[in-house]
Amino acid sequence: MFRSMLVRSSSSAKQALLRRGFSSESVPERKVAILGAAGGIGQPLALLMKLNPLVSSLSLYDIANTPGVAADVSHINTRSQVVGYMGDDNLGKALEGADLVVIPAGVPRKPGMTRDDLFNINAGIVKSLCTAIAKYCPHAIVNMISNPVNSTVPIAAEVFKKAGTYDEKKLFGVTTLDVVRAKTFYAGKANVPVAEVNVPVVGGHAGVTILPLFSQATPKANLSDEDINALTKRTQDGGTEVVEAKAGKGSATLSMAYAGALFADACLKGLNGVPDVVECSFVQSTVTELPFFASKVRLGKNGVEEIYDLGPLSDFEKQGLEAMKTELKSSIEKGIKFANQS
């Protein structure tokens, strides 16, 4: 999916854009702001967005070290103009005119920490950033990466509601990394080309709330129940696998940046009118009785254009769906409660 980002000349760039259904002259100007751009996810995400020909202006914001990241990325010979902003006083400038805001800001997970342990720090960061988004770019699409996503998306929604700017179609929790992992693990077990694999992942973005629907995976593979159980568990524990492998020195930054760039690219395609752009995302939803839920959504000029039903589930998946609901409901309510304090 990054073929169009890895352009080496104006000719190949034009061909890449034509594959998206545009001529080089008709691609709209799009400003993308990354909040937390100097962090472990933010830096590789900034690089990947600089490689995306759909981005005309790349705004990088963090509380420190952003000028260096911006200077470094700005030397790459692609379309977008890059500006770095540092500190609270410059947050408004970073956001003004943004079409898409991607938020990887916050502290990473360390060994022994759950996503819930991150809550108090990251919840406050997200609340502050979303207050600024409501003021400076209220119509932007917002991609929430900051964990715990199951709580930070409801926090953002409440902040926007208070400000009178909430548009449920434009707020997304980025669960793409769960999809990326599910595809990778499935391809390895099924011995099929990973580029051809598609696996919907529904629910939330933490532990048992992550539910890959391997019964709907394509291409079909005749995997045993034991294989499906193991693949599901590995997808749910993918973040912990990376945290432990890095031995206290980080979390899933590179794969998360890749997944974040994939989803941001999909949002930009939708904004630009590319048809049939479908991704999984954690959004306000009526697919279940829960107010937010991750499932396949079709992206368009207004953000979410359509939310798809879950489709047929295996008995194992039905059990997983019921098993996650209490935890997901609690995480959502925790976010709403936090946002409405003070």
Structural class: alpha/beta
Beta-strand percent range: 15-25%
C-alpha Rg, in Å?
Answer: 19 Å
Helical amount: 40-55%
**Mean pLDDT score:** 92
Give an account of the 3D structure.
The longest helix has 25 residues, at 315-339. It contains 11 helices and 11 strands. With 342 residues, it is of the alpha/beta class. The strands form 3 sheets. It has a 6-stranded parallel β-sheet with strand order 3-2-1-4-5-6, with helices on both faces.
Short description:
This protein is of the alpha/beta class and 342 residues long.
Secondary-structure topology with pairs:
Blueprint: H1 10-19, E1 31-35, H2 42-50, E2 57-62, H3 66-74, E3 81-86, H4 91-95, E4 100-103, H5 119-136, E5 141-144, H6 149-163, E6 171-173, H7 176-190, E7 201-203, E8 210-212, H8 225-236, H9 238-245, H10 254-271, E9 277-284, E10 292-300, E11 303-307, H11 315-339
Parallel strand pairs: 1-2, 1-4, 2-3, 4-5, 5-6
Antiparallel strand pairs: 7-8, 9-10, 10-11
Please tag this protein with its features.
about 350 residues, alpha/beta, three-stranded antiparallel sheet, disordered N terminus
